Amino acid sequence: MPEETPAIPTQNADLERERLTSLINSMGDGVIAIDEQTNVVLYNGAALNILDINSSITDKPLSEVLMLIDKNNQPVDVRQLVLTTKTSTASRDWRIKYTDDETINLYISIAPVRLGYGKEGMRGYVVLLRDITREKSLEEERDEFISVVSHELRTPVAVAEGNVSNAMVLVEKHGDL
User: Fold this and answer.
1) 78 contacts 127 by C-beta, under 8 angstroms
2) Residue 6 pLDDT > 60, yes or no?
3) Contact status, residue 113 vs residue 121, Cβ threshold 8 Å
4) Strand pairing partners for 5?
5) Using the 8-state DSSP alphabet, how is residue 73 labeled?
6) H-state helical runs in 56-132
7) What are the pLDDT digits (tens) for 47-56?
8) CA 20 to 30 Å from 89, out of 7, 8, 120, 169?
9) DSSP assignment, residue 10?
10) Which percentage of the chain shows pLDDT scores above 70?
């Protein structure tokens, strides 16, 4: 039986990179990998869809492709937000405003990426994006419904309490009627 030749390390690395790329591209959430200078290194199609971009964003600064606004419609410094992240963080408070003035709510997770302990080399961050506009809308509708229902329930209870209180005053004043 002939001996199998061991796989060449570069072939293994290429295969692993291909597997990783396939995995990232199959995700429903937007994934953007950035380097230490916050330039885009890797991304998937879902990220392009959320960002509403039809061209490559490789090597572009994250702050040029991900323009966030806060709940007061003020711009967010994405570069500073990423660079100050020391541990994995997530937020549901940011939004993107598109060129046609439409806005979407985003879930954003930012995680620093480091090589193993004591190893030198490439570092950076992974940014995960998810459009949660529908979820936020449902939450707002639920909160409004609860507010209206609790108000409507309070009104009859207050009327009933007033009537009972009036009846008690009459009973105390005139005795049994």
Assistant:
1) no
2) no
3) no
4) none
5) S
6) 62-65, 78-83
7) 999 999 999 9
8) 120
9) H
10) 86
Q: Are 66 and 127 spatial neighbours (Cβ–Cβ below 8 Å)?
A: yes
Mean pLDDT of 61-70: 92
pTM for the full model? 0.69
Distance CA 104, CA 97 (A): 7
The residues that bridge with 129 in the sheet, in sequence order, are 30, 108
Give the span between the Cα atoms of 140 and 60, in whole angstroms: 35
Provide the residue count of the chain: 177
d(CA 31, CA 127): 6
Give, in order, the Cα–Cα distances in Å from 135 to each of 26, 78, 92, 155. 22, 23, 10, 31
Q: Look up residue 28 and give its two tokens.
A: 């429903």
Query: Is beta strand 68-69 parallel, antiparallel or unpaired with respect to 124-131?
Result: unpaired
Percent of the chain with pLDDT over 90: 42
CA distance 19 to 36: 24
